[in-house]
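hiii so um. not sure if this is the right channel but i have a protein structure encoded as tokens and i wanna go backwards to a sequence. like what aa goes where. can anyone help
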């Protein structure tokens, strides 16, 4: 089995223990331990003169490798190009997309430095798995340095429609760099379709029917690999958490009221203020819910240095304040809004205690909260998931009540339906969703991606095409060229 090299913007610190690590980190660490390898990423530190050689932290057969950035890199590569250009664009928020050439230059430069550091650590037969939009140019930088390894990329966020992508200046360079990976994994079939549609429209490239496209002398497989959670482990945490005093205190404080829960990073893509407004519509239109239901919104701050995130924070606080001021009573706060983050077990317990899980992003690659909410439920008395049709998870969780987050009245109605859904229907919907979570937990997702990557050796067609493009290609007739092209 080849060694595995993982690259992502941030790397977990193994010294920090596992209580807060999400399923993704746990699954990648498991794959790394099985094969041995390296996990490289940004240390989270900004220093004036970063060492080009990563700091290593060895844990058994796995090395965690950390690179520092400069304060300018953080501003331009991270806050700038990654989070003010790519993030909003990929979430179809052109109105929030800020493009600056200086940010792009820094993005490319950081990727080049990561590639140089990585090239010094990689062995010939290692397979390399790169994560997310911060690192799209990494494979092309590694190829420039002569690496022939299998390199895969997983895109955690949505891939937008071609019209949206073409609004990004130099989108063609970005996509050409993407095609230097051997395998490009997306969350959903719709994301993969969007990427194929772009390739066909801009370059006339078509898939060979097995998701493979050819560009120059290189082939790339594009496929969807919907990410999962640690299904059984999370369910177990939720069962255990029921006994924890923290969860008991919260349930007791509800004084018999039903609880609705929302858990999201503070991000404009998650639709938190609009969701609060939908809850307001529910209690406004049906006074029976007054003092009968409490909505707990747990939202840790993120990317606070990006101005749009300060705006969303203000908007969430204002909306919560307005609803509470308007409908609250001395003994009832309709919306409990907290900015802190919780351990996995506490979160699992809170999900289980909630009659409704409210997950209404305007766009989301997958949305793991939706899956965690389902996994945490008591099969005998499960809660109901109200889920945006624009979350990747909607393609799998057919037992959810699907909603359009742009339609506040529709969301309000659906919350009402969820709150009174009969037990039999709740059970049937939950069983269907649980079955899909059991089929595709996060470790299976990682294994599927890695076997697809290993099964994508440079194809015969790709090698022959390389030969055609070489100095000797005069020996290949145009007929032969056509035949070879048809091979993939
Ligand atoms: P995110 O945008 O971060 O992920 P999501 O998939 O919901 O969104 O994952 C958030 C994770 O953070 C969940 O595991 C959740 O439990 C945890 N979390 C959120 N709030 C928390 C809190 N207050 N305390 C503790 N934990 C909290 C990106 C993409 C998604 C994609 C994932 C994985 O935007 O679409 O599903 O990557 O690929």
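sure thing!! here u go:
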């Amino acid at each position: 089995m080849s060694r595995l090299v993982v690259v992502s913007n941030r790397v977990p610190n193994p010294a920090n223990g596992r209580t807060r690590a999400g399923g993704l980190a746990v699954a990648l660490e498991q794959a790394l331990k099985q094969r041995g390898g390296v996990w490289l990423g940004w240390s989270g530190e900004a220093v004036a003169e970063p060492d080009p050689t990563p700091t290593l932290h060895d844990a058994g057969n796995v090395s965690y490798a950390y690179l520092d950035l400069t304060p300018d890199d953080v501003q331009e590569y991270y806050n700038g190009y990654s989070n003010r250009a790519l993030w909003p664009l990929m979430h179809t928020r052109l109105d929030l997309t800020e493009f600056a050439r200086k940010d792009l230059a820094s993005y490319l430069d950081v990727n080049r430095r990561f590639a140089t550091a990585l090239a010094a650590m990689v062995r010939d037969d290692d397979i390399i798995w790169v994560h997310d939009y911060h690192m799209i140019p990494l494979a092309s930088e590694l190829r420039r340095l002569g690496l022939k390894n299998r390199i895969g990329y997983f895109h955690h966020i949505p891939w937008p429609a071609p019209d949206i992508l073409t609004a990004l200046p130099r989108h063609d360079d970005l996509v050409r760099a993407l095609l230097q990976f051997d395998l490009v994994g997306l969350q959903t079939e719709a994301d993969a379709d969007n990427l194929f549609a772009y390739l066909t429209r801009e370059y006339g490239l078509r898939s060979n029917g097995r998701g493979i496209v050819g560009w120059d002398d290189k082939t790339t497989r594009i496929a969807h690999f919907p990410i999962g959670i640690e299904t059984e482990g999370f369910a177990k945490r939720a069962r255990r958490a029921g006994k924890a005093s923290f969860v008991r205190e919260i349930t007791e404080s509800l004084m018999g009221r039903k609880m609705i829960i929302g858990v999201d990073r503070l991000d404009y893509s998650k639709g938190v203020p609009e969701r609060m407004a939908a809850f307001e519509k529910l209690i406004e239109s049906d006074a029976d819910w007054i003092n009968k239901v409490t909505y707990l919104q747990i939202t840790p701050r993120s990317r606070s240095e990006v101005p749009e995130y300060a705006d969303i924070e203000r908007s969430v606080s204002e909306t919560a304040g307005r609803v509470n001021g308007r409908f609250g009573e001395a003994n009832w706060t309709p919306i409990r809004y907290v900015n802190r983050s919780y351990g996995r077990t506490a979160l699992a317990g809170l999900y289980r205690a909630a009659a409704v899980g409210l997950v209404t992003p305007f766009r989301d690659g997958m949305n793991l909260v939706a899956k965690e909410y389902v996994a945490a439920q008591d099969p005998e008395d499960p809660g109901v998931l109200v889920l945006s049709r624009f979350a990747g998870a909607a393609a799998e969780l057919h037992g959810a009540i699907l909603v359009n987050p742009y339609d506040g009245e529709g969301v309000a109605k659906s919350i009402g339906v969820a709150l009174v859904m009969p037990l039999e229907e709740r059970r049937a919907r939950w069983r269907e969703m649980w079955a899909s979570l059991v089929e595709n937990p996060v470790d299976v997702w990682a294994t599927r991606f890695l076997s697809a990557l290993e099964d994508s050796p440079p194809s015969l067609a790709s090698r022959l095409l390389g030969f055609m493009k070489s100095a000797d290609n005069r020996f290949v007739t145009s007929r032969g060229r056509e035949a070879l092209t048809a091979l993939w």
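oh and The longest strand covers residues 37-46.
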